[in-house]
């Protein structure tokens, strides 16, 4: 790496802590003020640095544009793959990764169960939002007004006797997801399967995907399934960290 580039990066890293004057920046980069000034002028011309007043410098808009491009380019499937496999190995059950496309959840990755009794599902399959654990998690990540509007537009086919069949009931379920950090499907989508799901967050804190553990009831009762919710949420936190999310505190 060239010396000028190293010094320029040192200036940017210092400005990441807040606005600084020329003396502070020169000291941080370990250069004379004239050298720091020359570097800052180059950075300012490219919008990596700007001057809020005559004596201070701060990070410029070009850095935020680059950061947004980098964040948009992160592939949630690639970031999640290792943890999905690990969760599948630990539980021995089917693990799904899903994202929302308009009014449906779409499975974008899957780790099959190691048990002899398996679920039929496939990557690319679409599932309802109102009666799946992943769907409820994805709804919980929407702004409240958008969530209410979408809930009002959804159709509510009763796929089993336990399926939620109205917007208000669904919104109440989503409120519980927000409070508890995970969602459940107690035989609402398929009466012989139950699921628990939690959310994956992007660097801005938005829920961009959901991970679920799904189990046929003959293999695990609901209370036993709940026992995996802590590890599921921990896996989602790790995936979120891979995407750049940093929880407050």
UniProtKB/TrEMBL annotation:
- List, in alphabetical order, the Gene Ontology terms for molecular function in this entry: DNA binding; DNA-binding transcription factor activity
Q: Does the keyword DNA-binding apply?
A: yes
Which keywords fit this entry according to its UniProt record?
DNA-binding, Transcription, Transcription regulation
List each copy of the IclR-ED domain by range.
62-245
| Pfam families named among the record's database cross-references | HTH_IclR, IclR_C
The HTH iclR-type domain extends over 2-61
The biological process GO terms on file are: negative regulation of DNA-templated transcription
Instruction: List the InterPro entries hit by this protein, alphabetically.
Output: GAF-like_dom_sf, HTH_MetabolicPath_Reg, Tscrpt_reg_IclR_C, Tscrpt_reg_IclR_N, WH-like_DNA-bd_sf, WH_DNA-bd_sf
| SMART domains to which the protein is assigned, alphabetical | HTH_ICLR
- Top-rank taxon of the source lineage equals Bacteria
Name under which the protein is recorded: DNA-binding IclR family transcriptional regulator
Source organism per UniProt: Actinopolyspora biskrensis
